[in-house]
Model the fold of this input.
Amino acid sequence: MVKYLLLLMAGFIFNAAAVHAQMGFGKPKDVAAVKSQPLVVILKDEDPDKLKKLAKKPDELAEYKAYVADYNAQMQALVPKIWQFSPAVEFKQESEVAALRKAKGGQRGVLQHLDFQLGHRHSMVGAAGATGAAGNPAAATMSNAYWTSEHVSAIVLEVMGNGSQSQVWRVQLASGPIYSSDLIFSIRTIQQYVQARAAGRSGGDMRAELAQNGKKLRTKTLLFDEDDIKGKLTAADIKQAYPFPYQIVSRATIEAAVVGADARYACVRVMPVAENIMAQVAVDAADGTLLGLSLPNRMRMMGVGGGSTIGKGNLKDFAQAAEGK
Done:
């Protein structure tokens, strides 16, 4: 499985097949723009509509304000520490994005958290060779395709300027709280991607690197969130499926390992394949390197959903990555 990790990451975790044109996949000119100009990190503004909506709900209002303040503080602390691809890092508010898009004189990289609706075009199974009304192949193509949309939350790197913008890469986030580890992983993953593109590394090169990275799992203690394990897997279940070092710990312990870049540990992250379908990746706490991947089974990929908790199948996939398979 690991030898196909890059392809699967592109095709599933980042929904790349559905959004190739929109994302741009790190076009050389876009990557060069990110590298040559200071990176602009967008800080959140408090949404006036949300403030109005929560005006009579003081607890929720305070929670929302705290979320905005905490996100901004974390990005201001984390990005300058992690991001080395651009010559400098600057911060601007959401209200300034339109001006960045219109600015003359060349494009620059912009990093921000976005919520948006993503559309997907699907071809129905068995469409090949079909014909439409009056034997019209074009009609068959239209009648055997359909569109769906889903809500997406992601950390997104774009280039903006001269009246246009395009996505370079993004890391989608699971629903729920945005932890420090989510931001750290997203920033590191995006930087690793543009570094690889700038260095001209091929897909084959990156697949070989990822296959080698998987073997590092056996040298690390894999941390499992106790909430993902409780009542679902016994110690015997885990040992049978994953015969390498592990610990069942609190979320706070995982956050401390990632924030501290502790090389002794790896941890499991849930990542959306689609809005209600999750993949799981094993990540090196030291630098965010991907060490293993576990995709939902075929039934879940067909739309039933799931994959948000750790099961024996996930553990077996991680064990295979550790064994270099």
